């Protein structure tokens, strides 16, 4: 665990495809914690949008910067998209019942995870997105057996 895969993503459409590929690679395993790291405008929410579209979510997908969490209820499982950017103290997450979101039938996608240190669970998969020329470089790291299984089954060509 901890080995990283690096790839280049040229544009917004590429980031959507990467999100869809992440969802495809999960197969029937719809649970876990994914950290999304990167500067403002790096493409974290775009990647989430691609994952959600592939998973069947057709409603608008926006960054939960002000609401902290956007829930997406699907048949038999849930996806929770967190944006912790505006959090001033990780303990604030206790007020929204943070622990209830991390159940066996949910996938939690967390932008700005450092803001929740000590309260949120460790990541199964971590994506670090950085600007590179006109595109992005994405570092994908598995931190659990589930994460390794997903990353190994991704088509990253």
- Please tell me how large the radius of gyration is: 14 Å
Strand content: 25-35%
Shape: globular
> What's the helix-strand series?
EHEHEEHEEEH
- Could you give the distance between the termini? 21 Å
In terms of structural class, how would the helical and strand content be classed?
Answer: alpha/beta
Number of helices: 4
CATH class: Alpha Beta
Overall average pLDDT: 90
Lateral arrangement of strands in the main beta sheet = 1-7-6-2-5-4-3
In the CATH hierarchy, what is the superfamily? P-loop containing nucleotide triphosphate hydrolases
Total of domains: 1
Name the poorly predicted regions. Answer: none
Q: Per CATH, what is the topology?
A: Rossmann fold
Secondary-structure arrangement, i.e. CATH architecture:
3-Layer(aba) Sandwich
User: Sheet bearing the most strands, described?
Assistant: 7 strands, mixed
